[in-house]
Design brief:
By secondary structure, the protein is of the alpha+beta class. It is 34% helix and 23% strand. Bound molecules: S-adenosylmethionine (SAM). Residues 11-65 form the Methyltransferase domain.
Length: 204
C-alpha cells in the first residue's frame, strides 16, 4: 500500500485491502456495508463492466444503505500546457482498450438501470484550480489540489519517458512548471457524484 496514505490518522474502523475489482465476487457477504463509495475508476474499467460491478456493489450494501460513485466530467483547460498532456495520452490509449471516456455522464443511467436501487441523485460540483475568490478556503483547496496533482504527475514518469513523450532529465522541471501553471491559471473540472439507496430501510 502506498506510504502516501497518512496511517497515523487512520480511524479505528477503517481497514485497507489490496484487491482487483474485476475479479468478482467481492470478498464480502451480502449486505455488509452501510455505505460504499467508489471514485475515479474511469481509466480502469471496461465500459461493459460497469453494470456488473454496480450490481455487485449493490449486493454488498445493506438494505437502506447507500452507494455513491464519483467521476470527473467536463474539463476546461486554458490552452497548451508545459507538461505533456498526460490525461489526453492516457485517455487515447484507454478508449482503444474499451473504457467509457464519458462515464461521468453515464453514472446516473447506470444507477437508475440497476434493480434494487432507489432515490438516484446526481450532483455536479465545479473544481477551479485557480479560483476567482482568494479567501482562505479557496487558497486551501488550491494548495490541496496542487499537492494531489504533484503526486499524480510524479507517478507518471515511466509512461511519459518510455514512449519518448518527455526526456528523463526534463521530468522534474516539467512537474514543477505544470503544478505552478495549473495553480496560476484557471482550469475547471466537473466532479460528478451520483448516489442511490438500496431498497427500503428495515426497522432494527
Ligand atoms: C485515479 S486513481 C483513484 C484513486 C482513489 N479512488 C481516489 O479517488 O483518490 C484510480 C485507482 O484505481 C485503481 N484500479 C484500477 N483498476 C483497478 C482494479 N481492477 N481493481 C482495483 N483497483 C483498480 C488504481 O490502482 C488506482 O489506484
Amino acid at each position: 500500500m502506498s506510504p502516501v496514505q497518512p496511517s497515523a490518522i487512520k480511524p479505528k474502523n477503517v481497514d485497507f485491502m489490496v484487491g482487483d475489482l474485476t475479479k468478482l465476487p467481492l470478498p464480502f457477504e451480502d449486505g455488509t456495508f452501510d455505505y460504499v463509495h467508489m471514485r475515479l475508476l474511469n481509466l480502469g474499467l471496461h465500459k461493459d463492466f460497469w453494470p456488473t460491478l454496480i450490481s455487485e456493489i449493490t449486493r454488498v450494501v445493506k438494505p437502506g444503505g447507500h452507494l455513491e460513485l464519483m467521476e470527473i466530467g467536463r474539463a476546461v483547460m486554458p490552452g497548451p500546457t508545459k507538461f505533456p498532456n498526460l490525461i489526453g495520452f492516457a485517455l487515447q490509449g484507454a478508449v482503444s482498450r474499451g473504457i467509457d471516456s464519458d462515464i461521468a455522464k453515464h453514472l446516473k443511467y447506470h444507477l437508475e438501470s440497476q434493480p434494487g436501487l432507489t432515490n438516484v441523485q446526481e450532483v455536479v460540483r465545479q473544481l477551479q484550480t485557480c479560483p476567482d475568490r482568494s479567501d482562505a478556503s479557496a487558497v486551501r483547496i488550491a494548495k490541496l489540489y496542487g499537492d494531489d496533482l504533484r503526486c499524480a504527475v510524479t507517478g507518471s514518469k515511466a509512461p511519459l519517458v518510455a514512449p519518448g513523450l518527455c526526456k528523463e532529465e526534463d521530468f522534474e522541471g516539467l512537474v514543477k512548471a505544470h503544478v505552478g501553471e495549473t495553480l496560476s491559471t484557471k482550469h475547471e473540472f466537473d466532479w460528478v457524484r451520483c448516489f442511490a439507496m438500496k431498497g427500503e430501510r428495515k426497522e432494527e
